[in-house]
From TrEMBL:
Organism: Methylobacterium goesingense
Enzyme nomenclature, EC number: 3.5.4.32
This protein's UniProt keywords: Hydrolase
Residue ranges annotated for the Amidohydrolase-related domain, each copy included: 62-425
Name the UniProt record assigns to this protein: 8-oxoguanine deaminase
Keyword Hydrolase assigned: yes
Top-level class of the enzyme under EC nomenclature: hydrolase
UniProt cross-references to Pfam families, sorted A to Z: Amidohydro_1 (PF01979)
Taxonomic lineage from the root: Bacteria, Pseudomonadati, Pseudomonadota, Alphaproteobacteria, Hyphomicrobiales
Lineage top rank: taxon: Bacteria
Family label: Belongs to the metallo-dependent hydrolases superfamily. ATZ/TRZ family.
Length: 457
């Protein structure tokens, strides 16, 4: 067979048929996937408009768009529930963990990344965003490792090249051994953008620039990162508005509130999405919405560190995209985005009332909202032309017995592990198992390194 014959062969058409429920209009008969994309939604009782090559019977499955994670710190899987940091708010928590994070090795980072990707995938996440800002000596190729691991697993990745350049000596929080100078950071940012950033629809890997926070980087780094993002057409990401301590720091250090700082350094625009975004006043919420700045709501982390409650409904009403993130596995202690959907529903009902926020809102934040934060219109929804990124859950566990609305049951009854996951038209989880990963071996190796490098003796 010649190469030209291979190139012109039509992709197989797969009909995912008659699901128990599906988060898409007019799709009770399922959907058809061709190549990497959804090409048809099938009405109840109907058949696809054109012949299909394969059929998957989804009668046991509830189908939702693949979840999109917009904030995480993969390396922190190695320091979950660490004795030096538990039961602390953000600033003391960070200072405690800075004393152990400098021990991370490339091998440990690779396993931490693999574990986080796998956890996310098993929870129904098909696009995994990470904010990696830790570059101690020897870990300069962290972004390269994250891209390699994503490609090996087949998950869609949005890796942000984070950074810290202000150490304790300069008035920042981290020790000097965890920081890099601005020139080194900017040079590597440009390197990874040129190597890995794919701006085309359907991209499997994209890169963003993510100076860590106002208390960890210089204003010069913020400004020049924004300029670099304009050149390479990439997104900008940082922590902002997470705690009242941050407000006080910005006022003392810069003489202004965090959002004024963001505007001064040229970040107040639709290219930017922020992690947490809790402590904005009414006027600031309106400014964020008018500028189109996205906010990643991290409900589990916000509750763990008692940071506060994100103003999700006001932000959306003002015009800001709102997405979801699991945040770091030392401030969440897992990497399960489906669990994050449930937590988002609960904390926002506590904030706004039982009728104001529904399970559909929480699912929307984790799919379309998160995709919008990342600047992507090709994922996050089940409709023709979008990428075939899907999460399929069964309701076979005791926790679902007696449930009447399958989509509501996923959130209210606490679904946490997908039975099947498809990314770009290819199955990546089958019968609850990630393809190409032996989870027992991964856990054993990861646990061993976590205890060796970060254990308390």
């Amino acid at each position: 067979m010649t190469d030209s014959m291979v190139e012109t062969r039509a992709p197989k058409r797969l009909w995912i048929r008659n699901p128990l429920a599906i988060l898409a209009e007019d799709s009770a008969g399922g959907l058809v996937v061709e190549g990497t994309r959804i090409v048809e939604r099938v009405r109840a009782g109907a058949a696809p408009a054109a012949p299909v090559d394969e059929t998957f019977d989804a009668a046991r499955h509830v189908i939702i768009p693949g979840l999109v994670n917009t904030h995480h710190h993969f390396f922190q899987t190695l320091t979950r529930a660490h004795p030096v940091a538990i039961n602390k708010p953000l600033f003391p928590w960070l200072k405690a963990l800075y004393t152990v994070w400098d021990r991370i090795t490339p091998e440990a980072f690779r396993l931490a990344t693999r574990l986080a990707y796998t956890e996310l995938l098993l929870s129904g996440c098909t696009t995994a965003g990470d904010h990696h800002y830790l570059f101690p000596k020897g870990l300069e190729s962290s972004v390269d490792i994250q891209v390699e691991e994503a490609r090996a697993l087949g998950i869609r990745a949005f890796v942000t090249r984070g950074s810290m350049s202000l150490s304790e000596r300069d008035g920042g929080l981290p020790p000097e051994c965890l920081t890099q100078d601005d020139d080194t950071i900017l040079a590597d940012s440009e390197r990874v953008l040129r190597l890995f950033h794919d701006r085309k629809p359907g991209a499997m890997v994209q890169i963003g620039l993510a100076p860590c926070s106002p208390f960890n980087v210089t204003k010069r780094l913020m400004r020049e990162s924004a300029a670099l993002a304009d050149v390479h057409d990439c997104r900008l990401h940082t922590h902002l508005g997470e705690t009242l301590d941050e407000d006080r720091y910005c006022i003392e250090m810069f003489g202004q509130r965090p959002l004024d700082y963001l505007e001064e350094v040229g970040w107040l625009g639709p290219r930017t999405w922020l992690a947490h975004g809790i402590h904005f006043n009414d006027a600031e919420v309106k400014r964020l919405g008018a500028a189109g700045v996205g906010v990643c709501h991290c409900p589990t982390s916000n509750m763990t560190l008692a940071s506060g409650q994100c103003r999700t409904c006001e932000l959306e009403a003002a015009g800001s995209p709102v997405g979801l993130g699991v945040d770091g596995s030392a401030s969440n202690d897992n990497s399960n985005l489906m669990e994050g959907v449930r937590h988002a529903l609960m904390i926002n009902r506590l904030t706004y009332g039982a009728e104001a926020v529904t399970h559909l809102d929480a699912l929307r934040w984790a799919t379309e909202g998160s995709a919008a934060c990342l600047g992507r219109s090709d994922i996050g929804r089940i409709t023709e032309g979008r990428e075939a990124d899907l999460a399929l859950f069964t309701l076979d566990e005791l926790r679902f017995s007696g449930a009447h609305d399958p989509l509501a049951a996923l959130v209210l009854c606490g679904a946490h592990r997908a039975d099947r996951v498809m990314v770009a038209g290819a199955w990546r989880v089958v019968d609850g198992q990630p393809l190409g990963v032996e989870t027992g071996h991964l856990r054993e190796a990861h646990t061993r390194l976590a205890r060796t490098l970060f254990g308390t003796h």
